[in-house]
Every structure is written in C-alpha cells, then in structure tokens.
Amino acid sequence: MRVRDELGELFADAEFAAAFAAEGKPGWSLGRLALIKVLQRVKNVTDRQAAETVRAELSWKDTLGLALDDLGFDASVLSEFRTRVLAHGLEERALD
C-alpha cells in the first residue's frame, strides 16, 4: 500500500501493449497484471492461488487499487498474460 501511495502506478499499461490487441473486449489492466505477477513471485503462489488472493485478501486489493467488492479474474488470465509477455520479449519491462 505504501509503495502504491508513494510511487503511484508501478507498471504502465503501455509498457505491455505491444503484446495485446487494441480491439476486443476490455480486460484487466496490463500494468495491474504485471504487479500481480510480482506479488505472485514474492508470495511463491500458483496462478490459481494468486487469482484467489486477489479476490480474498484486502492487502492485495489495496496494493492493486481495487474496490473491496471487486470479483477478480480467472486464473487463466495470468497464464495468458505471461505467455504473451514472453512471446513478445517484454519480460524485462517489469524489471526495468
């Protein structure tokens, strides 16, 4: 929470936009998904566990700037995000 409050948005959607179509149904913020992947790595949890944690843990909701009643997403979203980021060579963006 302090990180978000002090630094603002850590990962801009534009950093990952090359891996995703500009058209189609709206999805989750790409920057938010990148932050979830970082949190997932820190907590050493699976995609399914990370998706459940986003739904259930207030600390993750606050870190991600989500409303308390946000329903989260399906775990497959993280797998698809990871696959697209790797396929487009964008994995270093989160580290930069």
Q: Pick out the low-confidence regions.
A: none
Domains, number: 1
Structural class: mainly alpha
- In terms of DSSP E residues, the strand content is under 5%
The tally of beta strands, per DSSP, is 0
Principal-axes shape call: globular
Query: What percent of residues adopt helix (DSSP H or I)?
Result: 40-55%
Number of DSSP helical runs: 5
Quote the distance from N terminus to C terminus: 21 Å
Characterize the main sheet.
none
Oligomeric category:
single chain
In N-to-C order, the SSE pattern is HHHHH
Radius of gyration: 13 Å
- Roughly what is the average pLDDT, rounded to an integer? 79
Q: What does this entry show, briefly?
A:
This protein has helices at 2-7, 30-43, 47-56, 58-64, 76-87.
What descriptors fit this protein?
96 residues, mainly alpha, 5 helices, 0% strand
Polypeptide structure, described:
- By secondary structure, the protein is mainly α.
- It has one domain.
- It contains five helices and no strands.
- Helix 2 packs across helix 3.
- The radius of gyration is 13 Å and the shape is globular.
- The model has no long low-confidence stretch (mean pLDDT 79).
Secondary-structure blueprint:
Layout: H1 2-7, H2 30-43, H3 47-56, H4 58-64, H5 76-87
Helix pairs in contact: 2-3
